[in-house]
């Protein structure tokens, strides 16, 4: 609901459990409040503007403005940067007008959250303008009736007579008070999204990607919490970016100790020329406040991402159990070998066989053929059709890997179009994994990709696509842009990629798409808008995966995470974990296998078959239920636990790193159950009240070996 008090110029945005209040003072749009929902009414008397009369500081420096521009003594980080024709960057935005619309409009060319009907959301649009330059800004705020997430975006129009250059386009919010800690997700290839919590400094804390992808290093996510906030209680303020390219997310703490939190395009690799009459639409940011701790934040974000970012046929459907050949064969396969693995997969109940890299061009290693999307008939005689027919005969569907955004210097595509890659004339074209990146800002490149991927998908019965992207941008510039627009290259690339993804996913609406970027190097809401799941990490080691999936779950739902059982010793870490533990951890995401099933022992095959049956039985709860973190693997004790609930069923997964001699007994306390309801786990002969499970907890059995794990499944409602 959006309540407008036009007389006092106050805008009260009310979600199911939050309030977000804006007001206009001296013509400037200010943020009065963001936090727990409060009743409607005139709160203007409670709002003070700090900083009056403070020496060496100006009121503007402390004003809680919604858009942070350089003017009248604002010394902090900007969220909107505009270079005027005269070379200065002063921008004085003043309130012009506002309106409320039912529903939510799509953002042109960009992924964004959506409303399914006009009744379920309202959008407030506020117009601001700088009289001197003619820069006109429209801020858009969408409040959802059923979701506790606020969607915000900004567009900028040049209504003046001179060109302007946009140098910063971020969404910023000033937060109340000064006592916070910062949570973010840091990482690297094979170590993605490790949750990190640090004190908030005076000054600036920022994370970025300049890589042309959201990246492995930092996820586009930032949360501010109170020092006493836990998984189950306390304030959380969080932001994420519905975008897959370079980003910046920061907390800028002013002289008064009050933080301004922001997220948006990375200013180091972005600028955009706005000629008179032109507009620019910045990507959307999602804002969420939770009064009930980090799990409260995750519950809100998970349901929103699952149902108002992800789209399409697969959004609410159970995801297939798959078997992928990458770690089973790498490039070394032929049709018979693949069919043999698929046959074993079918025997244990897998539903989808995914042919990973190496099926096209002359690709037997990673140094060639990207761009040549033609099947390698030496490896797969009769083409894809012959192989998919064999797989269909086993009762399984077929999936296929692509890396469409890339080109190998050793490819027919590169030989025909050496200028189609991102590069700088006269400089070396730096390869990574022996490949270059196509300039997706160019229409002809986009069209080539749409046609070449579509024609493969038309050529055989393919029901799943793994869309990979295995390097970051260097010399990331388009050769067809004039010098004054070169810094637009990265964002134009993203707009081109989004067009390609929109066309292909709309053209094949029943195909399940999973994105990937060297594992989880592009795990963000931008990609999830086109593809409802992402390959979480190339690290399939169960012990590592507990931490990766745990961190990922702060923001992203389990239905968005690909999670596979792989061989031991693990290919990334050399670690040996029990087969059932690998299954129990992979159950925390979209379950699959990535190993040579033809080499499994009878015992492991039995375990695999049981795991598949269990996942199929429980996957509605695992993929669509509410996920709650119970014990963190990051607290140094080597234990972790999480739970899934759908009201009727509670699934609890417990994991322990190292066994110890003569151990202290420990319990896992569940969360969010009904106090007086009776919950029963027949397999473990446990039957007790929700109150007992939440306060006494499940007694964890003694671990007889390292990397032990347990799964409990309670039913209630009887
Ligand atoms: C990337 C992906 C892997 C696999 C390989 C194939 O590294 O993350 O899962 O698909 O590419 O080359």
The fold-level CATH name of one domain is Beta-galactosidase, Chain A, domain 5
Shape, please? globular
CATH class of one domain: Mainly Beta
Determine the mean pLDDT.
Answer: 96
Which regions have little confidence, pLDDT < 50, spanning 5+ residues? none
What is the rounded Rg?
26 Å
Largest sheet: 10 strands, antiparallel
Bound small-molecule species:
alpha-D-galactopyranose
What is the distance, rounded to the nearest whole angstrom, between the alpha carbons of the first and last residues? Answer: 38 Å
The structural class is alpha+beta
What is the name of the CATH superfamily of one domain? Answer: alpha-galactosidase from lactobacil brevis
The count of β-strands is 38
What would you say this structure looks like, in words?
This protein is of the alpha+beta class and 718 residues long. 20% of the residues lie in helices and 30% in strands. It contains 13 helices and 38 strands. The strands form eight sheets. Strands 6, 7, 8, 9, 11, 12, 14, 15, 19 and 20 form a ten-stranded antiparallel β-sheet that branches. The chain has an eight-stranded parallel barrel with strand order 21-22-23-26-27-28-29-30, surrounded by five helices. Strands 5, 10, 13, 16, 17 and 18 form a six-stranded antiparallel β-sheet that branches. The chain is globular, with a radius of gyration of 26 Å. The structure holds alpha-D-galactopyranose. Alpha-D-galactopyranose binds next to loops.
């Amino acid at each position: 609901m959006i309540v407008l008090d036009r007389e006092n110029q106050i805008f009260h945005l009310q979600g199911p459990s939050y309030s977000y209040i804006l007001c206009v003072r001296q013509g400037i749009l200010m943020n009065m409040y963001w936090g727990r929902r409060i009743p409607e009414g005139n709160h203007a008397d409670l709002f003070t503007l700090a900083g009056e009369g403070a020496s060496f500081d100006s009121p503007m420096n402390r004003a809680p403005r919604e858009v942070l521009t350089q003017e009248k003594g604002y010394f902090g980080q900007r969220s909107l940067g505009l270079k005027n024709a005269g070379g200065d960057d002063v921008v004085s935005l003043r309130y012009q007008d506002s309106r409320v619309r039912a529903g939510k409009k799509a953002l042109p060319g960009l992924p964004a959250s959506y409303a399914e009907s006009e009744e379920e959301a309202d959008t407030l649009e506020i117009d601001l303008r700088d009289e001197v330059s003619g820069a006109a800004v429209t801020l858009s705020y969408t409040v959802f009736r059923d979701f506790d997430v606020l969607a915000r975006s900004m567009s900028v129009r040049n209504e003046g007579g001179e060109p302007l250059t946009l140098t910063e386009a971020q969404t910023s919010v000033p937060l109340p008070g000064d006592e916070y800690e910062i949570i973010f997700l840091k990482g690297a290839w094979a170590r993605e999204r490790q949750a990190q919590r640090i004190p908030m400094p005076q000054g600036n804390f920022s994370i970025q990607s300049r890589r042309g992808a959201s990246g492995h290093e930092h996820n586009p996510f930032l949360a501010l919490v109170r020092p006493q906030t836990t998984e189950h209680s306390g304030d959380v303020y969080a932001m994420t970016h519905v975008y897959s390219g370079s980003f910046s997310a920061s907390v800028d703490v002013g002289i008064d100790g009050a933080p301004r939190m922001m997220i948006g395009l990375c200013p180091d690799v972005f600028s955009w020329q706005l000629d008179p009459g032109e507009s620019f639409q910045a990507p959307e940011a999602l804002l969420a406040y939770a009064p009930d701790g980090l799990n409260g934040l995750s519950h809100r974000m998970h349901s929103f991402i699952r149902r108002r970012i992800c789209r399409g046929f697969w959004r609410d459907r159970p995801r297939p159990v798959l078997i992928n050949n990458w770690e089973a064969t790498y490039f070394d396969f032929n049709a018979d070998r693949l069919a043999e693995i698929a046959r074993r997969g079918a025997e244990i109940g897998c539903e989808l066989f995914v042919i990973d890299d190496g099926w096209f061009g002359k690709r037997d290693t990673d140094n060639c053929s990207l761009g040549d999307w033609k099947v390698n008939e030496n490896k797969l005689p009769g083409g894809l059709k012959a192989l998919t027919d064999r797989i269909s005969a086993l009762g399984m569907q077929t999936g296929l890997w692509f890396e469409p955004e890339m080109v190998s210097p050793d490819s027919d595509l590169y030989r025909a179009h050496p200028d189609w890659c991102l590069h700088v004339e006269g400089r070396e074209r730096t390869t990574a994994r022996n490949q270059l990146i196509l300039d997706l800002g160019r229409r002809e490149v986009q069209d080539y990709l749409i046609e070449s991927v579509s024609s493969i998908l038309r050529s055989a019965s393919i029901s799943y696509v793994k869309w990979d992207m295995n390097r970051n941008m260097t010399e990331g510039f388009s050769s067809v842009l004039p010098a004054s627009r070169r810094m637009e290259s990265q964002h134009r690339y993203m707009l081109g990629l989004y067009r390609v993804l929109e066309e292909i996913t709309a053209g094949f609406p029943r195909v399940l798409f999973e994105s990937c970027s060297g594992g989880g190097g592009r795990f963000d809401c931008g990609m999830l808008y086109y593809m409802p799941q992402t390959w979480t990490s190339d690290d399939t080691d169960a012990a590592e995966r507990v931490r990766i999936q745990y961190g990922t779950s702060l923001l992203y739902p389990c239905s968005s995470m690909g999670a596979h059982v792989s061989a031991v010793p693990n290919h990334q870490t050399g670690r040996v974990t029990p087969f059932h533990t690998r299954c129990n951890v992979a159950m925390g995401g979209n379950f699959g296998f990535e190993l040579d099933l033809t080499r499994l022992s009878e015992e492991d095959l039995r375990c695999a078959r049981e795991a598949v049956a269990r996942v199929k039985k429980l996957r509605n709860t695992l993929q669509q239920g509410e996920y709650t973190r119970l014990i963190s693997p990051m607290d140094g004790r080597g234990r972790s636990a999480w739970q899934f609930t759908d009201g009727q069923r509670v699934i609890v997964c417990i994991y322990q790193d190292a066994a110890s001699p003569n151990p202290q007994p420990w319990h896992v306390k569940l969360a969010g159950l009904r106090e007086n309801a009776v919950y029963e786990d027949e397999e473990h002969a446990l039957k007790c009240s929700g109150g007992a499970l939440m306060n006494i907890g499940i007694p964890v059995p003694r671990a007889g070996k390292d990397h032990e794990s347990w799964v409990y499944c309670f039913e209630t409602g009887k």
